[in-house]
Amino acid sequence: MKLPAFFIAHGSPLLALEDNEYTRFLERLGSDLGKPRGIVVFSAHWDSPQQLITVDAQHETQHDFYGFPEEMYKLAYPAPGDPALSSRVSALFKDSNLCHQPILGRGLDHGVWVILKKMFPQADIPVVALSVDSMRSPEEQYNIGRMLAPLRDEGILLIGSGGLVHNLRLLKQDDQPEPWALDFDAWIAERLEAWDLASLFAFEKQAPHVREAVPTYGKEHFVPLFYVMGTADEGRRAQLMIQAYQYGTLSLNCWMVD
After folding, report:
1. Is the per-residue pLDDT at 81 higher than 90?
2. Is the pTM of this model over 0.85?
3. What's the Cα-to-Cα distance from 5 to each of 167, 170, 210, 254, rounded to whole Å?
4. Which whole-number Å values give the CA distances from 25 to 18, 20, 126, in the listed order?
5. Angle CA(8)–CA(9)–CA(14) in degrees, nearest 5?
């Protein structure tokens, strides 16, 4: 069965401990999806000019954050890797002449494991993590995603993990979204639903409040959207599954593409 692909906001690492509307949605989503043969995740927290691929048979859990409650650093997500799936990803990249490199021993960063801990808490599904390159053009990012589209017919769940509105320097004490964040998300939603690639690829020039929503120091959180959109280039359908906010300037949205 061909699986849809998803852009999933990972928000604050504290999502791993929280029980709220968004975390309950992630739990339901994982239950509804059943048990895919494997999971491939483009993570905002792995930004590299070269395409990198984890090749581990077993993953460690990265606690790549600071200043959080001690309990956060005790959490683990001991998911297996799948060297055969890593090799399949590598072969698809090679077929399209994309320079890439296998990486052993990196572990899963919180952009990967926080959402998967909610979706698939048993940590029994093989995971392959992929880097993103925030300096590539949106069209290049999209085309890298297209290379992996065949995996969706092979029982593999493809995810882009990041955040459409992700500004850590403007965080508030409450979750009421800033008006500019709502405006930006609405602009993205309208063009995603129309699969308006020309406008989306030019988001930095056209989207309202783009510098607040996607600050220059945080563009890596936005770009997983283009990678995962590319995996759905054939169908070109996008559906907003949920939209919520943390601290006013982090949007928690999940988009399904098919």
Report:
1. yes
2. yes
3. 25, 30, 25, 10
4. 12, 8, 22
5. 125
